[in-house]
Amino acid sequence: MYAQVIVDVPTMQTNQPYTYEIPAALAELVQPGMRVVVPFGRGTRRVQGFVVGTTETTTTDAPLKSIDELIDVTPVLNHEMLALADWLAKSNFAFKISVLQAMLPNVMRAKYVKTVQLIDESAVADDAQLTAFFADRYEVPLDDDHVAPELLKSIQRLQRQGHVAINYYVGDKAKIKKVTALKPLMSSQAYDDARQKLNKVAKQQARLLTFLMTAPNEWIAQKQVLDATGIDYATLKKAESNGWIARQEIEQYRIPQLTSKIESTTPLPLTADQQAVFDQLKPSLQSKDHQTFLLEGVTGSGKTEIYLQDMAEVLAQGKTALMLVPEITLTPQMVRRVKSRFGESVAVLHSALSDGERYDEWRRIERGEAKVVVGARSAIFAPLDNLGLIILDEEHDASYKQEDNPRYHARDVAAWRAEYHGATLLLGSATPALESRARAQKGLYTLLRLPNRINQQPLPPVEVVDMRQAMKQGEDELFSHQLLEAIQQRLNRGEQSVLLLNRRGYANYVNCRDCGYTPTCINCDLALTMHKASHNMVCHYCGYQEPIPEQCPNCGSKRIRPFGAGTQKVETLLQQYFPQAKTLRMDLDTTRKKGATDQMLEAFGRHEADILLGTQMIAKGLDFPDVTLVGVLNADTTLALPDFRSAERTFQLLTQVSGRAGRDEKHGEVVVQTFNPEHYAIQFAKQHDYEGFYRYEMNLRKDWQYSPYFYTIQLKITHEQQNEAARVAYQIADWLKPHLDEQAVMLGPSMGSVARLNNKYVYRIIIKYKKSEHLFKALDELMQTGQQLQKQKVGLVIDRDPVNFV
What we know:
Layout: E1 2-7, E2 18-21, E3 35-39, E4 46-55, E5 69-70, H1 79-91, H2 96-102, E6 110-118, H3 128-134, E7 139-141, H4 149-160, E8 164-172, E9 178-184, H5 188-196, H6 203-214, E10 220-221, H7 222-229, H8 233-241, E11 245-251, H9 272-285, E12 291-297, H10 303-316, E13 320-324, H11 331-342, E14 346-349, H12 355-366, E15 372-375, E16 387-393, H13 410-421, E17 424-429, H14 434-442, E18 446-450, E19 462-466, H15 467-472, H16 481-493, E20 496-500, E21 509-512, E22 529-531, E23 536-538, E24 545-547, E25 560-563, H17 567-577, E26 583-586, H18 596-605, E27 611-614, E28 627-632, H19 646-658, E29 669-674, H20 680-686, H21 690-704, E30 711-719, H22 722-736, E31 745-757, E32 760-769, H23 773-791, E33 795-800
Parallel strand pairs: 12-17, 12-18, 13-15, 13-16, 14-15, 16-17, 19-29, 20-27, 20-28, 26-27, 28-29
Antiparallel strand pairs: 1-2, 1-4, 3-4, 3-5, 6-7, 6-8, 9-10, 9-11, 21-25, 22-23, 23-24, 30-32, 30-33, 31-32
Helix pairs in contact: 5-6, 9-10, 19-20
């Protein structure tokens, strides 16, 4: 028997599997989808691999290496995931090993250990450095990055002479949590009889017996019993020796917890609009014929209730359901809603979970114990069987695109999985992506509409404030008098406000007023952002930090001042303008701590704050009855991006955040501050006119030859030397040109919108195309060549349908 294995070797990746012989002892155990440890290359190197197939025969006459050991008892990737990996690697110019690893929790990636084994002890006896290194040990872990160069040279010399051996080990980081548990062994009557016979001073034993009388006949965590009864360990040991209970180690899932208890809910009555949508979806939910629906519903129209009732429909048929939300910040809210309806059958998957929680949730899904999964982008790989429904909420959101390898879009993966299972794919948004809306226009998707809010309240009126005029009249650059008055009115009425500024930190940058010096990142060509709370200047790309300068390091002047504003500065100003108000700030800096987002939103829902200030993470999904004002402090932040989608993103952001106001019976109001009040994206957002924006923007895209009329591929070439990055970029462009079809357009090579990131200069090539046959073959060949470029320290990224052009 032979196995086809995709190996985990970063510098020599290939999508062609290697053939390994299966030892006789493992012949009946090895299956596709299992992880194995195999020898690779010369010497004793061992690597992790994925078995993607098995055969009885082999076509090669060369001697084959054998599989060393199995990591898994059963396959961790089923037939669907292996087929999906093939498609995803091919369509996204990715190596299959990176796709396979992306499908599993982080802890299931291999942990590699490299060691030095001492063979001839006398060879190091006269070398003090080597003697100290081994320190009476015969095998020592070796980390090349943390060993002195001279010591490393000595080890390499001894290896060549045969005095030491370099060994490689593959470990599995996935650990199961075990706890001590106990189980009742007697009947309730027997426990009562034992309690009656106790000495009156044996109060702890009496409490335990009382607990056991009503305890279920199953394993209970020991800590749970101790907490419930207040007894000590000695009493438990006495109970075990008396034969009252059995004790042993059992597995315990690490279940992600929300900050407050989840109350059970029942389905809500549907409005006429909701019922019409549900009736259109129901035949698809009950069949095995794959269909894709685009649900275009205004904010507050009740899309979530449609999702929940659709889930209930497929669960009733014995199928499973998967729901994605774009932001981790939205996940706790959606989890709360879904768990309140479906209880413990719901699993959660997103990157804010601990490794242990993510691993245990994955195992609950894989074992069939969870029937519904809610999560962010990576949850699209949840190992659900018999999928009946996949939902992408806020389907337009750019965070559904993976920015690192493999660069997949969750919407594309969802479409593939829905077709594989014959499932229904439901894409929901108040502002669908133009690509999705165009597919619905062509009939590739079925378009469903929810044009009204469930309470029949109108969408809130939007006032656009021209900040150019406001500043001419001497008003604050951050707060117009209209917005300040609107906030004060809400405070007077005991209502709440939501304020959006899509820029974190205190100030955009600091600048010397005498010489013009601006502190910039040492790794990137970017000004550092001032964070007053931490007293640091921070690069939001690479994380570099340095203290806020008290005087100019260039000329020594003390006239160095912050410019621009972020959420920290706005929070400070709000305290000055409204000292009686309580403000909650939600941005990446305040939500890093686990559970912080859920705690903040729960506190805001309990009216413990009057104002919720945040970045774009507060623009979607929030539903608070007392929020009657939404203020956008600078609507131009996304308009300034060097991206053909900047107008679309601005319209979507303004429309989404506007929808947070007036969602209950109280009327809402929106104030949008901008220096570009005439811009069409802002004007259409003012009218809540998605259809008007769609028609206007589609005409521009057609003229510009951009998506959805043309597909796009971005190539990014990086190197520490600008000349080398440019040379390779032009070389690649010249090589690619003969492979382009007549309608294809190549833009560049040109320097990236940020010239240097993480000490690498960036050059870009943009290809717009309609047909891909010749182009894809060339790009696949270029992907393989990229590994040779790595040896020259040249980075190459091939990004299909990118969502940004940094």
